[in-house]
Design goal:
Elements: E1 3-9, E2 12-18, E3 26-27, E4 35-36, H1 40-52, H2 57-69, H3 75-92, E5 98-102, H4 108-116, E6 121-124, H5 127-137, E7 142-145, H6 156-161, E8 164-168, H7 171-184, E9 188-194, H8 210-217, E10 223-230, H9 242-258, E11 263-270, H10 276-281, E12 286-289, H11 291-294, E13 298-300
């Protein structure tokens, strides 16, 4: 089995591989298991360390990854590829569809390049990464939180940064956002995250409970419900995602027809790099794109 990864080091980015190999090639047992072919002097040293077990696997792996990261990397080429990816993507989308650049693990510099190339919405999974990117990019883009939003995330500075929270999945979180937004005089647009695949390991509201949560949230004054978001199960074949997008769209339309106070069903956020075309066919008007914009996700040393 062979999987592409990218590693970010002090001097750039290189592709590495996860693969069980032997002889003159090297197995690196680091976390998920990264692999790369290295110069001969590294192969020799690696073999000795593996045989003697003088170092822990983690220490050994970090040492090899540092060596790999010293390879040459052309930032200008990568930046131009990102720009080309964005221009091509925006050109193929129908009117009324917004692209959210999913910036998980991306550097502030990469986020800025995406914005300069035409991206208008940045989606962040982690508050720490969002703060770092915001320091560089600021209000040149809109900021959506798309990760699991927990109670400890509901802080003044966080709410000041984000223009929308797409992952509200409980009345408790909604009330906390409402309470903190009241303190800073802000009305926060939100989407309810739908666990359309009913996957127990994932966050989100089961489809059958969405309407009940919407009715409860509609009474809060400092948040405004603007629609639904779903990830859906991940499949190799994008067509396998269609039933989950169809069900989320059905719920969206039903709630829209209720005409509840403080509820404006405007956005249906569905689809990622491998499934956004199917999501568009099923009514998505926000798509979350990471790899198609930035390339393969990186792991930082």
């Amino acid at each position: 089995m062979r999987e592409n990864y990218t590693i970010r080091g002090k001097r750039g980015i290189v592709n590495v591989y996860r693969h069980i190999l032997f002889r003159e090639e090297v197995v690196i047992p680091f976390k998920a298991g990264f692999h790369t072919s290295l110069p001969e002097e590294y192969d020799s040293r690696v073999g000795e360390q593996l045989k003697s077990q003088r170092r822990t696997y983690r220490q050994f792996s970090l040492q090899i990854l540092e060596a790999v990261s010293s390879m040459d990397y052309n930032h200008d080429v990568a930046s131009e590829l990102t720009k080309q990816n964005i221009v091509k993507l925006l050109a193929e989308l129908p009117d009324g569809v917004e692209v959210l650049a999913a910036a998980k693990t991306r550097t502030p510099g990469e986020v800025l390049e995406a914005v300069q190339a035409g991206v208008k919405i940045i989606g962040e999974n982690y508050v720490k990464e969002a703060k770092e990117a915001y320091e560089l990019v600021g209000k040149r883009a809109k900021w959506h939180f798309i990760g699991t939003f927990q109670k400890h995330n509901v802080r003044r500075r966080v709410l000041e940064i984000f223009d929308m929270i797409e992952s509200v999945d409980s009345l408790e979180i909604a009330r906390e956002i409402d309470r903190k937004c009241a303190q800073i005089g802000k009305i926060m647009p939100i989407l309810i995250e739908v666990n359309s695949g009913r996957e127990p390991q994932k966050s989100g509201v089961p489809p059958e409970d969405v309407e009940q949560l919407v009715r409860k949230i509609s009474g809060l004054r400092n948040i405004k419900l603007m629609g639904l978001m779903t990830m859906g199960p991940r499949f190799g074949n994008p067509e396998d995602s269609r039933p989950y997008f169809v069900e989320t769209r059905r719920i969206f339309e039903k709630i829209k027809g209720l005409e509840l106070p403080n509820v404006e069903m405007k956005y249906l956020s569905m689809g990622m790099t491998n499934s956004y075309k199917v999501a568009l066919e099923e009514g998505a008007n926000i798509i979350r794109i990471g790899t198609k914009i930035f390339g393969e996700r990186v792991c930082s040393l």
